[in-house]
Amino acid sequence: MKDKLKSTLERFSKSIVQPLMYLSVAGTILILGILLTNTSITSKVTFLQAAPFQLIGKMIYDPLMFLINNLSIIFCVGIAGAMAKKDKGHASLIALMSYFLFLNGNNITLNFFGKIAQPGMLGLYGTGQATVMGIQVLDMGVFGGIILGCLTGSLFNKLGGKQFKGYFSMFSGVRFPFLIMIPVSLVMGFAVAFIWPVVQTVIAALATLIKQSGNIGLFLYGVLNKLLVPTGLHHLIYAPFQFTDVGGTLVLGEQVIAGAYPIRVAEMNMPDVMFSDSTYFNSYSFNNLFPYLGISLAFITTAYKQNKEKTKAMMVPLMVAAVLSCITEPIDFIFVFAAPVLFGVHSLISGVSLVLLKVLHIPASTSGGIVNIMISNLVLGVKKTNWPMLFVFGAVVAVAYYFLFVFMIKKMNLKTPGREDVEATAPQVSQASAKAASAPKSANEKQADAMNIIEGLGGKANIESVDNCFTRLRVNVKDETLINEDIINRVKNSGIKRKGKDIQIIFGMQVAAVRGEVEDMLDKL
After folding, report:
1. Tens of pLDDT, residue by residue, the chain (525 residues)
2. Which of 4, 245, 414, 486 is deepest in the core (most CB within 10 A)?
3. Is 346 exposed, middle or buried (0-12, 13-18, 19+ CB in 10 A)?
4. Residue 162: what are its φ and ψ, rounded to 5°?
5. How far is CA 151 from CA 12, 76, 100, 103, in A?
6. How many whole angstroms from its chain centre is CA 141?
7. Mapping DSSP to helix (H, G, I), strand (E, B) and coil, where does residue 173 land?
8. Which position among 76, 150, 326, 469 bears the catalytic label?
9. Are the C-beta atoms of residues 233 and 195 closer than 8 Å to each other?
10. CA distance 8 to 89
11. In sequence order, which residues have a C-beta less than 8 Å from that of residue 435 and are 6 or more positions away?
12. Burial, 378: exposed, middle or buried (Cβ in 10 Å; 0-12, 13-18, 19+)?
């Protein structure tokens, strides 16, 4: 039971990370879009205001931000495809169609029962609903996509080979899981229309409690703002504080200004007036910048030697994007499920950081990325913002995150990026990779190697699924007694690890090419 649970969690962790690997590529290009569209930059570098540069900037920034803002559907499709043992394209397509069914089912239910929210001055912001792919639904963050992706992948593996006779033969094979996912998706869309608002109500009640609890409340505000990011419920925490009297009020003559953000904007135009305490409800974005320097560097540092370059290539663009824009979701979802204890600690420190900003009297602007932070605080001046202390404190926080995360990752052997394999095998893998790279194989030799691997695994009929991580070919077989390691070892590798029906063969950095050859050969047999 324990091994089965561990295997399930490992498979889920691996599946949820795969879609995010593409976001590191998006993050690299997004940096250029940020530089070209950031008004703080273009106001200083005036030639960037020219129409061609602005067009290019928007063409880069807006489409890539569309991906960031629709992580739910990316997770749904990506997880289903990653979980599927075969016919991954069909599994992903079924997940996509199921997601659309879920959205429509939820929208129809909300409309039918009169639960659809009406946009206000801020649109649907703070209503607990959002527009996804043009459809107004309950705002579940990425949870809806993750749940549907897991359901699709699981049902596809169980039912994808089902065969029927006669008239019902049209529902055989990969069509049968879709047949099942139609009612599943619609029922889920219906059910969450009643279940999720209860969760949202609890979160709203927490907001009231936070307001009445002083620094303890500010701590809870910081914790929940980070902890609830995967669910999308963090909007229900900060929105009331940002834009309603829950975040405070300011009386200017006959005008009453409500909400931490409007109050801050008003106080920015009052040179001789210091920022009121409500401004610290705006400072949650501090936790979207400085901590991620330490987190990203910790992931790179703790990656195993043979995985370090790949981990660096993945993390550096995401770290730069976080620094320039405070967009942190791609990094958050890399470890929130793979190492939830780290995300829990991150959330707790986020709360502590907000309280310390208040105790140290650092009301400096923290939103919009490093460029916006620098410019806005320079304009307001040191006396009003105490901005030099912001960077001193930020540096301390980044360093603290780095050492704490490095310690926890190593001590608890957490499976953060680049640590998917057992460390003891790392030197062997590295050597095997180097030897393989120095002696390229011919097409016939690669095919012979693939045949040996398949034969050693008990033949095509014994192979359930073929996958890989950074360095290992991961195979699930029907009957582990048919495994012949002597035949597998005809192909140069750095070790074979067996755990029941899960077989791992260590090939090093060329494992993706080996997997491709094996899959091609399986298709031919």
Report:
1. 555 665 666 666 667 667 766 766 776 677 788 778 877 678 888 898 999 999 998 998 888 878 877 888 988 999 999 888 888 899 999 999 999 999 999 999 999 999 999 987 767 877 888 888 899 999 887 788 989 999 999 999 999 888 888 778 888 888 999 999 999 999 999 999 999 998 888 877 877 788 788 899 999 999 998 998 877 677 677 777 876 667 887 877 766 677 888 888 888 877 778 899 889 998 998 999 999 999 999 999 999 988 898 889 889 988 988 888 888 878 888 888 788 999 999 999 999 999 999 999 999 989 878 888 888 888 788 998 999 999 999 999 999 999 999 999 999 999 898 886 544 444 444 444 444 444 566 778 888 999 999 999 999 999 988 887 666 788 989 998 999 999 999 998 878 888 888 888 888 667 878 988 998 898 888
2. 414
3. buried
4. -65, 135
5. 11, 9, 15, 16
6. 11
7. coil
8. 469
9. no
10. 21
11. 492
12. exposed
- Distance (Å, rounded) from C-alpha 462 to C-alpha 464? 6
Q: How far apart (Å, rounded) are the C-alpha atoms in residues 387 and 394? A: 11
Q: What is the dihedral of CA 512, 513, 518, 524, to 10 degrees?
A: 130
Place of tokens 């602007």: 365
What tokens appear for 23 in the block? 């976001």
pTM of the model: 0.63
C-alpha to C-alpha distance for 333 and 105, rounded to whole angstroms = 27
CA 275 to chain centre: 34
| 3-state SS string for 126-144 | CCCEEEECCEEEECCCCHH
* Strand locations in 89-219 (E): 129-132, 135-138
* CA torsion through residues 192, 198, 203, 207, sign: positive
447: number of Cβ within 10 Å? 15
Residue type for position 363: P
H helices of 253-339, where?
260-268, 290-302, 308-325, 329-335
100 class by beta-carbon count within 10 Å (0-12 exposed, 13-18 middle, 19+ buried): middle
Cβ(68)–Cβ(26) below 8 Å: yes
Q: Is 326 a catalytic residue?
A: no
Phi then psi for residue 13, to 5 deg, are -60, -45
Phi, psi of 135 (to 5 degrees): -120, 125
Joined tokens for residue 350: 């986020």
Please give the C-alpha separations between residue 524 and each of 390, 393, 447, 472, in angstroms, as whole numbers: 62, 60, 11, 23
Structure tokens at 71: 């992580």
Residue whose structure tokens are 């398949």: 454
Residue 247: Cβ-neighbour burial (10 angstroms; 0-12, 13-18, 19+): buried
- Report how far residue 79's alpha carbon sits from residue 86's, in angstroms, rounded to the nearest whole number: 13
Phi, psi of 164 (to 5 degrees): -125, 160
